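Late entry, evening session. Most of the bench is empty. Finally got around to the prediction I had been postponing all week. Sequence below, unchanged from the version circulated by S.P.
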Amino acid sequence: MHPLLGTSARLVVGHRGNCAHAPENTLASFAQAVALGVDAIEFDVRLDADGTVVVMHDPTVERTTDGTGAVASLPWDALRRLDAGHRFTRDGGASFPYRGSGVGVPRAIDVLRALPATPVLIEVKVPEAAAPLRAVIEEAGAGERCLVESFHDEVAAAFAGSTIATGASQRDVVRLLWRALLRRPASRLPFRFMAVPPRHGLLPVPIAGLVAATRAARAPVHVWTVNDAAHARRLWQAGACAIISDDPAVIIAARAAAGTSHGG
């Protein structure tokens, strides 16, 4: 059983690591999340100008580093020199505790090698990163502990025939909504799991309905991004199998207080 695919699990996943307390999508953030006891970490990938699979959420580097420019236009030699802790602050800019501390932008292979026993949820931000990411996961021998998701339909095809489980695309979720609203289960699905937000704009996402629609196909529902303990408990009660959080310590404590097991 894949560690992130149990349909009765109550898992806590560190969103971009422990990003409420450390620079997102960095080795420092991931290490903190693992030390807290998360069941998995989540991160985003793109391609740089050299075709390297790099860990970065935004299409540009301005928000999270001291650099400028599009990720896709920068070579790895330039990206690896950026200070990924430069802009991180928890007090509105009064202090920058990670600035100049050597926190950099990692490659996907760096994360998989640094945390060889940690399950990982990877979001592919651009379709062209899918095939190179598969090669990286297979190079690291991490296929049995990785899940891959993307909004883009075409990403799943790059992982066909591999041991790497893929999630629902945005279109897959939309196609399933009628079943969710009617609580009509699907016996087979073209994905192994889905990761969804609790709201889409002003509209609530029917989490309990999606759980009902996917349970027979044994495709767990993961929910992002949840940082409130009471909200997490309600989602687990609705059948969510994983909570993806910026502040995983809060959610781990909520699970412990509720006496909820994380196995599944």
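Two things to note before I forget:
The chain has a mean pLDDT of 96.
The longest strand covers residues 40-47.
Will write this up properly tomorrow.
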